[in-house]
Amino acid sequence: MANNEIQLMAHLMRRAGFGAPFEELEARVAKGYEATVEELLRAEEKPDWEEDVARRHMIGGHLGNAMPEIQGFWMQRMIATTRPLQEKMTLFWHTILCSGDSKLDHPETMDTHIDMVREKALGRYPDLLVALSRDPAMIIYLDNRYSHKDSINENYGRELLELFSMGVGNYTEDDVKMAARAFTGWTLAPAMNSFIPYQRHAFKFQYDPEDHDDGEKVFLGQRGRFNGDDIINIIARQPATARFIARHLYDFFVADEVQVPAWQTTPPRDPAAVNVLADAYLQSDYDIRSVLRVLFNSDFFKDESVWYARVKSPVEVVVGTMRLVGDHLTPAPGIESLVGAAGGMGQILLNPPSVEGWHGGKEWINSGALVNRVNFVANRVGDLSLPGVQRIVERLGDITESISPSDFVDGCLELMGSIRVEEDTRLALIAHVERGGPLGRDTEEERASFARKVGELLQLIASSREYQFA
Amino acid sequence: MTTSTKDPVLVVIQLSGANDYMNTVIPYADPLYYDFRPVVSIPQNEVVPIDGQLAFHPSLLPLKDKFWDTGKMALIHGAGYPNPNRSHFRSMDIWHTCEPEIMGIEGWLGRAIRDLDPTAENVLTGVNIGQSLPRALAVPGVPVASVANLEQYGVLTGIEGDKERNQALDVFARMYTPAVGSGIVMDYLAQTGQDILKGADILKVAPAKYSSTVEYADNSIAQALKGIAQVHLADLGTRVFYCSHALYDTHATQVADHKKLWDDLAPAVCDFYDDLREHDASDNVVMLLFTEFGRRVRDNGSGTDHGSGGGSFVIGDPIKGGMYSEYPSLKPEDQLDGDLRFSYDFRGIYSTILERWLGLDAKPVVGGSFEQLDFI
């Protein structure tokens, strides 16, 4: 069953999406690699999911705190989506352009925030930054509403430069102040009175010209009466921004980099690849979709040395597992518990620990998080009532008349999404299957025992070290 | 593997997001304080004076009653480091690794745990209560249990039947055997998996053995300290405990938010010590509270922006209470770009605790010699 094309497709789908069951990998290989990349990139050509149907399943929040509902709604969307790359990019930006409910305490505004990010996720980066600067969640999260003409609050100006575009070392403290001045007056409209029962409304953006500092500013060596839009246009075309975004994309889609604060002093893992991506950014009028097209079709992405070179984030673990086992593919109660599961592994959706986002890569792993990762996935893939697990049992049972322990192990690895494991791991799994006795399927009893053995093996594969990687 | 209950123990609480020291230990007699803080200040008639110059924020009253007034609370003013960095991320890294110049990889407490237990005999020498492991505790090869929930700690708990689960755990152990050439992260995973297997067996007894009359509040920091009390009282040989409390990043609406944080934290610390005292297990526990930096002298109309020159507290029965190091001057000519100038290198606090409390050589842990204080 195993072949290189399937494995490469599995790699693409783990990165550009949340992984795919074996049947989907087969179908995509039949369609071709480049065609699949193109289909993923042109997300808007796929039908959107039925948002109103999903909303109808999540009505509890309007009677109280809507946050679990809104987190669950996004989790649901990632699991059910026909546009996996769009959701993956939304998640990507969420880990960088952080905003979080712990500070907002206003779920509806987090909801419109993430909708905005999704809409702009694959577009031109300056368009996203402009939308972000007018986004009520960000205006609250980084305090721009408290930045006034006569007393600036530097928070947004600083993080825009440090974390959202150029990185430390590429601007001065004066640039921070100039950026903050340019965004004065970008604030919130007064809160709306709610006359409709059981409903709150998201905050809205408002520009207050009276509170805007219209004076001359010197920013990154340029002089003018800059406003926020001008600042973003200047930022977007900086080579430092191109490199910073390129390195983030490499880190998220190709292979784990060192943590962001070390980027000043540690060169990229693959400097040539980052240059290619940075050039693609500058040459495409800062178009993220164009950069991703270059990335997914590049040799450095397809190379086997970067397969499994990223530790899955908790949200990737949860969403990928649900897609694999075919659970929660349509809206149903209980989605909030999946949000909690990712939280237990160290990633609470829509609630990053700080504006710097989560420390990823190896730092996702510690004993507590690993316990939660292993148990969450094992409990799902060992549940023989789930459709995705049943498909694996059936397909494995169909292979040949007699199946050896090593065929059994290889088959399970393949059907879990063409997973490659170290030989030692494979031998440990084979030894376990051998110890369990014959794998017959002739009688009802044997078939039940066969299914149980599949479930058990899937649990062990899910608890392996290799399963922690994407 | 077991150690005596009376071995010195350190509990660290990280105040994430930069606690505003100026509004925690308040220079209430200095008119400059009220000049610079027209909005984000605590009125003179509300502060809790500790002398003619300084006062606690009213929410620290429980700490004053229990620790300050009994001489068991040390205030270390102006704790910081040269060339302050105002990025949370970077500054917290510096406090975690003691490396202000370069990017450090190893955490200072991870090193201390390695020195306390060089052969990693006890996988519970260091215990973090929380969802993710802070860098302060992270050193490759040094096991630290990071536990969100004491009751549910262990892998493959969903496999039914003792025989089946034990067989599965055998496979797990084999799959988590480090192999030559499999890479740093794979090796790290292998070690983490092995530590889980060992730690789980030991740790799960803690909640079962625990009983107390103290009722902790239902907030994150109180529950974290309760978890620490449970493990400490189970006598599992843990020497370093860690937990975090967030979010102190009060750029806006600080007066209300900062009060809420200390309203949760101060009673939680008191409950923790009451719990320990009830079990005659408090005299070997020292607690450090720290944050990554202080906040700007001048308020921004609603909160305070990132500054430098913060402050730390050390609490516990063996502590010589009082004020250590100098409270930074608020005078404009003494400030550093609008911030309080740091007056004491934080690595001296660590050195004092490492040498005088944990009995370790501080120099290799903090990367140099720093002035120690007499709070121990």
Task: Tell me what you see in this structure.
The complex is a heterodimer of chains A (470) and B (376). Chain A has 470 residues and is mainly alpha-helical. Chain A has a domain of 82 residues. Chain A has 24 helices and 4 strands. Chain A has a two-stranded antiparallel sheet. A two-stranded antiparallel ribbon of chain A has the order 3-4. In chain A, a hairpin with a 2-residue loop joins strand 3 and strand 4. The mean pLDDT of chain A is 92. In chain B, strand 3 and strand 4 form a beta hairpin. Chain B has 376 residues and is α/β, with parallel strands linked by helices. Chain B is globular, with a radius of gyration of 21 Å. In chain B, helix 5 packs antiparallel against helix 6. In chain B, the strands form 2 sheets. In chain B, strands 1, 5, 6, 7, 8, 9, 10, 11 and 12 form a 9-stranded mixed beta sheet that branches. A 3-stranded antiparallel beta sheet of chain B has the order 2-4-3, with no helix packed on it. Chain B folds into 2 domains: 305 residues, Alkaline Phosphatase, subunit A; 50 residues, no CATH class. Helices cover 34% and strands 14% of the residues of chain B.
Using only C-alpha atoms, the radius of gyration of chain B works out to: 21 Å
**Average pLDDT figure of chain B:** 92
Q: Which class best fits the helix and strand makeup of chain B?
A: alpha/beta
- Mind telling me which CATH architecture of the largest domain in chain B this is? 3-Layer(aba) Sandwich
Q: What's the main sheet of chain B like?
A: 9 strands, mixed
Mean pLDDT of chain A: 92
As for the CATH topology of the largest domain in chain B, it is Alkaline Phosphatase, subunit A
